[in-house]
Amino acid sequence: MSVFRKHDDGPVSTALEAQGLAWLAEAMVDGGAHVVPVTSGPGWLEEPRLTTTAVTPAGAEAFGRALAVTHAAGAPAFGAAPPGWDGRAQMGRSDIRLRPHAVEEGEPRRWGEFYAEDRILPYLQPSRDNGSISVGGARIVERLCERLRDGDFDTDQPALVRAGARERGARVAVARTHGDLWCGNVLWTPADEAAQWAPPRAGLGPQELDPRQAPSGAVDVAAGGPTAVGVLIDPMAQGAHAETDLAALGVFGQRYLDRIYAAYHEVSPLAEGWRERVGLHSWHILMIHAFLFGGGYGGEAVAVARQYL
Q1: pLDDT tens per residue, range 155-204
Q2: 119 and 249 fall within a common domain
Q3: What pLDDT, in 10s, does the model give residues 231-263?
Q4: Measured between alpha carbons, how far is 276 from 66 in angstroms, rounded to an integer?
Q5: Can you give the CATH number for the domain in which 136 is found?
Q6: How far apart are the first and last CA of the chain?
Q7: What are phi and psi of 150, to 5 degrees?
Q8: Among residues 73, 123, 124, 126, which one has the least CA distance to residue 238?
Q9: Which residue range is the domain that position 132 belongs to?
Q10: 34-35 and 228-232: which strand pairing?
C-alpha cells in the first residue's frame, strides 16, 4: 500500500494531528470507529493511501454504532487537546482554542460556557473586522452566547458517554470527538482492506452487540457485515459534546446520514430534542468560516444564532 506524507505548514502542526489520530484510535480495540494509521516524525506524518468506495446503508449504520464507542472513550475536559500537546501547536488555520489534556481544577466548565468562550466568541471580533458580521449581527451572537453561558442549552451527553464518565469517576461527562467531522473527513474504504491494519474489533460498536448484527436492519451483500467502513481522517480531536460531531456530519451532506444517526441513537441514546440542537452544534463551523473567508458566512452564522433566541 502506498503512502503519502504531510509536512508542517506554518502554524499547522502535523504532530498535533498525529496525536489526535492516535488518541481517537485507542477506541478501536473496543469497537470504536476506524482511524487511519499514522507514522510521524519531526515536522511530518505519513498515512497510507486508502482505497475509497461508496458508503452503503449497512456501512453507515456500523459507523454510527462505532462512533458512539469512540465518543464514549471520553476526555478530561471540554476543549481538552489530545495527550502530548505542547500548548502551542495549532490544528488547522482556524487557530482553534485548546486546553491542556488534564482535568480542570476547581469546578469544571459546563458545555455552554466552553462553547461560547472557546468556539464562538474568539471568532466574533475578527469577523467584525473583515466585515462579514455587522454591529447588529454581533449583538445577536453575543445574546446567544449569554444564553449558552447561562446553561440554557446544556444537555446530557449520549448514554454511552455518560456511562463511560461514571466508570472513570469523572465529574463531568465529556466526549472524545473528532472535532472536524464533516463528510470529507470520513473515508469509505473496503472492509477487507481496513482489516489488514485495524484491530479485530474496530468498527463493530459496543461489546455487547453481536459483531455481525445490524440492529437497524440494513444488510450488505457480503456475509457477516458491511463491505465498506468509515475511516476517520484529518481530525481536530478534542473533548467536546458528542452532538457537535454528529451535527458536523450533516453540514455538507453525508450520504445515509439518517442511518448513521439512527444506529448511533440505538446503542447510545441521545438526549431528547437533539435534532432541534443540530444547528446550534454546527454553529461554530459557520463562525470559523466567517473568520477565515468572510463573505456570506457571517450572515449565515447570525441567522443561525437568531433561531435560538
Answers
A1: 999 999 999 999 999 999 999 999 999 999 999 999 999 999 999 999 99
A2: no
A3: 999 999 999 999 999 999 999 899 999 999 999
A4: 23
A5: 1.20.1270.240
A6: 51
A7: -75, -10
A8: 73
A9: 111-153+274-308
A10: parallel
